[in-house]
């Protein structure tokens, strides 16, 4: 499949194979705000260091909402989540110890809007699309339930 994408094009282009039933999508809605803290009073972590005193290209902990949005979008933009490396969605009963297996997903979006006039908070959505892991061999004969 990698040969179908021109080497000069973005690696974020999409390639879909569908059995005709359409895609199952999960939409996550979230809100971020300036000064957000966890139940212990520590700033919510937005990156890889968790240091609220140091804004970096990979961490916006304790930073203003615009910096937090940019950090999240940059992680999503440069990440390698695709059908060769899907992300794992675990929530509620879709968990290792839940009623259902975690779901392999690819990401679509995100959409974020500064929701306050002063820019102190934002709303966002991220869509997760159920994806097959193409690294796992699929044998149609072995998987035929007829």
The count of helical stretches stands at 1
Provide the residue-averaged pLDDT: 82
Order of helices and strands: EHEEE
Query: What spatial form do the alpha-carbon principal axes imply?
Result: elongated
Helix content: under 10%
**What summary fits the major beta sheet?**
4 strands, antiparallel
- Record field, number of beta strands: 4
Specify Rg, calculated over alpha carbons.
Answer: 19 Å
Q: Record the strand order, biggest sheet.
A: 1-4-3-2
Beta-strand content estimate: 15-25%
Low-pLDDT sequence parts? none
Q: Which class of secondary structure composition applies to the elements? A: mainly beta
Q: What is the terminal separation in angstroms?
A: 30 Å
Topology (SSEs and partners):
Layout: E1 25-33, H1 65-78, E2 87-89, E3 103-114, E4 121-130
Antiparallel strand pairs: 1-4, 2-3, 3-4
Detailed description of the structure:
- By secondary structure, this protein is mainly β.
- It contains one helix and four strands; from the N terminus they run E-H-E-E-E.
- It has one helix at residues 65-78, and strands at 25-33, 87-89, 103-114, 121-130.
- It has a four-stranded antiparallel sheet.
- The longest helix is centred in the middle third of the chain and has 14 residues, at 65-78.
- The two termini are 30 Å apart.
- The model has no long low-confidence stretch (mean pLDDT 82).
């Amino acid at each position: 499949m990698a040969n179908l994408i021109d080497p000069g094009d973005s690696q974020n282009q999409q390639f879909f194979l569908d059995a005709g039933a359409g895609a199952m999508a999960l939409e996550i809605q979230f809100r971020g705000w300036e000064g957000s803290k966890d139940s212990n009073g520590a700033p919510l972590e937005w990156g890889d260091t968790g240091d609220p005193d140091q804004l970096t290209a990979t961490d916006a902990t304790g930073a203003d909402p615009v910096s937090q949005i940019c950090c999240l979008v940059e992680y999503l933009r440069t990440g390698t989540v695709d059908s060769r490396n899907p992300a794992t969605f675990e929530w509620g009963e879709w968990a290792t110890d839940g009623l259902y297996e975690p779901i392999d997903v690819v990401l679509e979006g995100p959409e974020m809007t500064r929701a306050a006039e002063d820019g102190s908070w934002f709303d966002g959505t991220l869509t997760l699309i159920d994806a097959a892991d193409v690294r796992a061999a699929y044998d149609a004969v072995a998987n035929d339930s007829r």
